[in-house]
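Re: your question from the hallway

Yes, I did run it. Sequences:
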Amino acid sequence: MGRAPGQEGTSERMSSAKSFKYGGVELTQRRHYDHEPLENAFLPINAYIPLRELDQEAKIIVTEGMEVREGQLLARGEAKGSANVHSSVPGYVRRIIRTDGERPACVVVALAGSFSILGKRPERYLWKSLNRADFIHIVQEKGLVQTSTGRPLHELLHACHDGDGQTLVLNALEMDPCRRTEEAVLVSRLPDVLDALAMLQKILKPASVTIAVDQSFPQDEKATLERQAAERGASVAVFKRRFPQDMPVLIDRALRPEGAAGAPSFVVEPTTAVALHDAVVANKAHVEVYVHVGGGAVKAPRVLKARLGTPIGELIEECGGLTGKPDRVVLNDALRGPLASSLDVPVGKTTRAVLALTREETRSARELPCVHCGACVKVCPEGLRPYMIQKLAASGRAAEAEAEGLSRCILCGACSYVCWSRIPLVRNFQIFMSQGKL
Amino acid sequence: MSATASQGISIHPPHIHDWRSTSRVTWLCGISLVPVVAWSAALYGWPAITVWLASVAAAVLSQLAVDALRHRLSLADGSAVLTGLLVATAMPPGIAPHVPAAASAFAVIIVKGVFGGQGSNWMNPALGGIAFAYANWPGAMREFIMPRMLSGVDGLSASTPLAFAKDLASSGSARIMDTIHQAGYPVSALDTSVTNVLNGSLFEHLGARLPDGYVDILLGFRPGALGESALFLVLLGSVFLLSLRLIKAEIPVAMLVVFALLSKLFGTGLPGEAVYGGDALFALGGGGVLIVAFYMATDPVTSPASRFLALFYGALIGTLSYLFRRWGGHPEGVAYAVLIANVVMPTLERRVDPLFRGLARRRPA
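Structure:
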């Protein structure tokens, strides 16, 4: 378990590794991580279960003081964009916190009583006879959410139709140098992930199935992965460690033959896949979340299986606590994720990492005026000139910013990562886009 | 964890960054000049040290004055110190301290401060200051002294090899270096011995001969501006900058290749040249070409952001430098070449860069 700043690089350069054409940042340095069995985090005394991942909140169907079982429905995802929310622990509803601005509303469940499902051996449900509608029903019922986007999985599955000829991609790429959740889940729960892929094959009837891993994927595990994938008709594609390769749009572009049209690839992550597997096979709601607690300021970084609603501070405590005051604590992704407003923030369905980053890792500095260094131009995978877009849009010249390609920006964050002057370019572009005509 | 937000640090993603930051890069550029400062101090003694000090001190004080007016301290970004150092590189040692001080103050206050501080200037501040000094003190800027290390005394006046060669009438010898040494230009003993060794061990076998004097140029054993007094250290600094990718290699490469080629093909206009036999090595070794190529033409603020345009920009500077050197009145024409390129750069970026990008990065929509 590499808590020291020990880092590993990719020893080999695979010429066959797939990638995108222009730009990108070589983030070959990764924090070292040994594959140990994933551990279960302690149960929270109070689980702060959030009612939304995106904008739409699920409708609460419990009242304060009510006793709830583990996996019992707390709120129903009625509106588009919301998913069912279940209790992650047995106990009673201590409080219902209404939304307060930034933070989502949540149901506080105090731990009490006995375990009905999650602590026991899972029953093995024979899923091979289920059809597309059955699967989507289970997915909706169990409140599954795509862990990378927060969108309800049943809506995504609904949107895809038979015979689209699309590719099903299992995305185990993590270009973030601090996070290894997907890789750890793929390695330690490989049979379940492959089962989930088989389920998705039944639902989507894709033309092909590809498992995307990167060059630093451990060699022994890769051989196993390739053998087992081949048995199920899936192929393994190796990608370069080049940020932002983990974006679905760039994976799709790399897998697609030059100039070929067709429906975009359906991209899921191993963490979403195991949630699907557990929902179908073990009748579990989406209440377990794999979280990589890491970053240089955490004593013993590891991947934990945490219950929905566990405050992130408790997870950090479980990993030995902090070695000092971190420069910042970040959720999900050091390059694109949000800042954690406090250590009381609960784990949500999309929380894949809690990263306590040191000053050496963040290399943050005061925002300065653009010095025109051209680093953003060099790394933009879309071949845009981010500094020019920023200059034009910031001075209110919307039409010219549009002509520079503002709407072609895929918001990958490469330009903001390399910006000498630490200008939050992507954040600004999001604002410019949402303002529309400015 | 939003405690950092108050210090002007973004709280938005990304939360990790590349190690290069504006101020770190600026300081590293300054640090890469330290060997040049040290070597010139060894060569000239106090006449050199006072110039460096006057220039840097004036730049820092001017920056403080600008900051006081704008209510924002920006000394930490290092740009004032770097500007002061770069202004001093063009100064002859022994010049009255008010000249570098005035040039630095002009650079920091007028060229940079008035236009809105770092990032907003449309002209390289250091070169602006240098041009200011050439315009106001043309005599003092061209009065050079012999290095104390050679002459043994401070302030023995002499002329640079380039100025010396310009004043010579043609004598028909094939190499400029031979010509100027026949005309009585001194050569150091170190140069003679190193050149002999090089000729005996290497060039002879290649059927070539290195005339005396080039080693002197490289080591600064001849009169010249402070930045020219250690060309080998300038080259070392450029290796440092290029290897850390702090400057765009395209700019100096295009500039020097074009400049050297033109000098080779059409001659440097100096006496004793055969047609198509211009002495490119001599041309590169004088007039501050190297320090301008690596330290001033590459200033990110006033050079193109994209690499395609950087090639174009470097070639433009190379061409203009050659024209100014060949037919212009002053050996320091390369400074004006960069300033002119600075002025046309925004237009190039607006009009020409999209064309390059269209060709290079066409993608089906």
